[in-house]
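Re: [ENG-882] Designed sequences occasionally contain unexpected residues at chain ends

Forwarding the minimal case from QA. Structure tokens:
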């Protein structure tokens, strides 16, 4: 498998993070119902949700914000033949930052640390877009 196909592995890892957050949210919501902190009706339109599941629900929303730009740029790099070693390394760095961001968000939820991890991931995503732009200027 060449470097161009290798760009799919960070994308798969990012998708796995989304599924893991879904599982965690389900587990926390079930725990909230079983403990009496919430009822099933509370999740019809979750305006009030227990903190432990609310932070996971918010993190799940985060997984469909910045990562969407990552998926688009990674696929664009692949389609245009720009998914070289640098793109793959930047993609893995982005995904690592997203895992760390999610871990902080659903555990300690230290806002400053979470923000910094978000900014690091955003920088990697921006670099991928810059790499795509540079690549497109060199494609005949």
């Amino acid at each position: 498998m060449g470097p161009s196909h290798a760009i799919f592995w960070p994308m798969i890892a990012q998708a796995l993070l989304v599924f893991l957050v879904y599982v965690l949210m389900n587990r926390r919501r079930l725990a909230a119902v079983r403990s009496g902190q919430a009822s099933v009706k509370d999740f019809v339109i979750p305006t009030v949700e227990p903190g432990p599941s609310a932070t996971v629900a918010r993190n799940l929303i985060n997984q469909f914000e910045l990562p969407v730009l990552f998926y688009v740029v990674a696929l664009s790099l692949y389609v245009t033949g720009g998914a070289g070693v640098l793109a793959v390394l930047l993609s893995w760095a982005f995904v690592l930052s997203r895992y760390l961001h999610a871990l902080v968000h659903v555990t300690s939820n230290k806002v400053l640390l979470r923000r910094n991890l978000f900014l690091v991931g955003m920088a990697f995503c921006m670099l991928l877009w810059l790499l795509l732009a540079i690549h497109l200027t060199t494609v005949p």
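QA comment: On inspection the terminal residues look reasonable. The domain at 3-138 is CATH 1.20.120.550 (Four Helix Bundle (Hemerythrin (Met), subunit A)). Proposing we downgrade this to a documentation issue.
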